[in-house]
Design a protein that fits this description.
Oligomer: single chain
CATH topology: Rossmann fold
Radius of gyration: 15 Å
Structural class: alpha/beta
Strand content: 15-25%
Number of domains: 1
Number of strands: 6
Helix content: 40-55%
Distance between the termini: 12 Å
CATH superfamily: P-loop containing nucleotide triphosphate hydrolases
Largest sheet: 6 strands, mixed
Strand order of the largest sheet: 2-3-4-1-5-6
Order of helices and strands: EHEEHHEHEE
Number of helices: 4
Length: about 140
């Protein structure tokens, strides 16, 4: 699994498109679980998952604790990575980095940033490679 992370409009998608031109793209939508992407995997074809922040914004408003959401995310990552290995699929996840901005006053916005940070950490720890994208420049972090 590879993680491309960076701020809004930093060039993450362009970097992924350049490196994985034949990839299948799947946008995570509210109400879906990450592991549901297994149904669109094609053997040996890279799979790019994006829309995590928007998905998280919708999910975090539900009455589910942060710990439960994070446990689901970790479990789904493991399931998805296992399926990717079985099918010879390079799994690529694009995520927004939010740690360099102003901490919002609204509680729900702070929780959103916390969840995003935890999910990014979990994804980075399970990824073989992590790339930080800023101003269109791609730097290997892991």
């Amino acid at each position: 699994m590879q993680l491309f992370i960076g701020g809004a409009c930093a060039g993450k998608r362009d970097a992924v498109k350049a490196r994985f031109p034949s990839a299948v793209w799947w946008r995570l939508s509210p109400g879906q679980r990450l592991h549901e992407a297994t149904h669109i995997m094609q053997p040996s074809v890279p799979l790019v998952l994006h829309g995590v922040f928007e998905w998280l914004a919708a999910v975090q408003s539900l009455d589910i604790s942060s710990d439960v959401l994070r446990a689901q995310w970790r479990g789904d990552l493991e399931s998805l990575e296992s399926a990717a290995q079985t099918h010879g699929v390079t799994l690529v996840i694009i995520m927004n980095e939010l740690g360099r901005g102003i901490v919002p006053m609204a509680r729900d916005q702070r929780r959103l940033r916390d969840l995003s940070g935890w999910f990014s950490q979990d994804t980075a720890s399970q990824s073989e490679q992590v790339w930080h994208v800023r101003h269109g420049l791609v730097q290997a972090v892991k």
